[in-house]
């Protein structure tokens, strides 16, 4: 029973994830090092970021072994933040255009 | 005065197996069970998760604010690749300090994960040693951040202006990395306290090492936030 005395997983699993995180971080550093630009750069950054975040949350923070009621209570509310990001991106675009008009820049 | 003979149980009594269904159905049954929702999750761990959820909102607000000022800035945004470059041995390497800081923080997450493992196996010495190693990595990270701040301040970067371009760069940088660095510093103190209590045998007496996993959750979250800051602030 895993939860009777907390989460028990082999140390080798943690070492593998650790190694994987090193590889992914190196790749995201190389994105900058090789000066990739535009949508290719942004999608690489996002994919590597989400892979790293997923590994940390699911394995290191043991989310993969929690009950679904808990997993959804923690992981679903942050999705609201995507709405905030969308609204603010639209607003910032508008602010940028008005600055162009009124400040003549 | 009579002392209670046994300390109260740390975990609630697990519900009978027939009430614990799996899969999608478990969401409805757990939330509708009229008792504790997070079954077999100790309250300390559930509360840490809820705290981390609120912290997620705080950091996302900072990153969203940064996104807004970066989109709406009319002056060119300073190129982080050049701003955070270091000259080592006569060669200018872009973003190298931030890359090293990333590796230091990931290493600290690895040692923390193993510390949790040894805590549940009740290997106190190794658990405390790994926690102190985690704290040492954290302290290294904060020191490198202090170096980075001093370098940028010496180059004239201020929250209201900087010589490289858009004035909003300084405000975003000091706000986001400052708040993250504060989290790391608090985490280092937290880990040292828990490691000390592990060594002293506090959790051996109570028979409950959950607190190590809870402290670990906080530490992994600090690493998680750095993943997002690294992607959006330094690489974008």
Structure description:
- The complex is a heterodimer of chains A (105) and B (236).
- Chain A has 105 residues and is mainly α.
- Helix content of chain A is 73%, strand content 0%.
- Chain A contains four helices and no strands.
- In chain A, α1 (11-33) runs antiparallel to α2 (38-60).
- The radius of gyration of chain A is 20 Å and the shape is flat.
- With 236 residues, chain B is mainly alpha-helical.
- Helices cover 69% and strands 3% of the residues of chain B.
- Chain B is built from eight helices and two strands, in the order αααββααααα.
- A two-stranded antiparallel ribbon of chain B has the order 1-2.
- In chain B, α6 runs antiparallel to α8.
- Chain B is globular, with a radius of gyration of 22 Å.
- The N and C termini of chain B lie far apart (65 Å).
- The model of chain B has no long low-confidence stretch (mean pLDDT 88).
Mean pLDDT across all amino acids of chain B: 88
SSE-based structural type of chain B = mainly alpha
Mean pLDDT of chain A: 88
Strand content of chain A: under 5%
Structural class of chain A: mainly alpha
Could you say which overall geometry of chain A the principal axes of the C-alpha atoms support? flat
Q: Secondary-structure element order of chain A, as H and E?
A: HHHH
* Total of DSSP H or I helical runs spanning 4+ residues of chain B: 8
Greatest contact between two chains = A-B, 58 and 66 residues
Q: Radius of gyration of chain B from the CA trace?
A: 22 Å
**Largest pleated sheet of chain B:** 2 strands, antiparallel
Biggest beta sheet summary of chain A: none
Distance between the termini of chain B: 65 Å
The quaternary organization reads as heterodimer
């Amino acid at each position: 029973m895993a939860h009777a005395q907390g989460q028990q997983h082999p140390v080798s699993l943690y070492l593998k994830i650790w190694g994987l995180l090193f590889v992914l971080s190196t790749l995201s550093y190389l994105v900058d090092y090789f000066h990739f630009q535009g949508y290719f750069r942004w999608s690489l950054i996002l994919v590597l970021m989400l892979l790293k975040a997923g590994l940390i949350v699911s394995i290191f923070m043991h989310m993969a072994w929690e009950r679904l009621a808990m997993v959804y209570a923690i992981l679903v509310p942050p999705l609201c933040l995507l709405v905030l990001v969308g609204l603010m991106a639209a607003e910032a675009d508008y602010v940028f255009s008005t600055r162009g008009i009124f400040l003549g820049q | 005065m009579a002392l209670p003979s046994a300390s109260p149980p740390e975990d609630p009594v697990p519900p009978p197996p027939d009430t614990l269904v799996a899969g999608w159905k478990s969401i409805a049954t757990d939330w509708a069970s009229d008792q504790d929702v997070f079954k077999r999750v100790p309250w300390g761990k559930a509360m840490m998760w809820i705290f981390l959820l609120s912290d997620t909102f705080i950091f996302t607000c900072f990153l969203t604010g940064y996104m807004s000022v970066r989109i709406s800035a009319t002056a060119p945004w300073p190129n982080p690749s050049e701003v955070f470059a270091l000259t080592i041995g006569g060669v200018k390497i872009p973003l190298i300090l931030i890359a090293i800081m990333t590796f230091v923080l990931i290493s600290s997450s690895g040692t923390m994960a193993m510390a949790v493992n040894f805590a549940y196996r009740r290997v106190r010495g190794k658990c405390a040693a790994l926690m102190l190693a985690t704290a040492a990595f954290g302290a290294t990270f904060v020191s490198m951040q202090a170096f980075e701040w001093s370098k940028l301040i010496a180059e004239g970067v201020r929250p209201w202006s900087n010589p490289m371009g858009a004035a909003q760069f300084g405000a975003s940088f000091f706000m986001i990395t400052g708040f993250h660095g504060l989290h790391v510093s608090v985490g280092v103190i937290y880990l040292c306290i828990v490691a000390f209590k592990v060594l002293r045998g506090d959790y051996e007496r109570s028979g409950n090492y959950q607190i190590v996993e809870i402290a670990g959750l906080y530490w992994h979250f600090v690493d998680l936030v750095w993943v997002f800051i690294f992607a959006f602030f330094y690489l974008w």
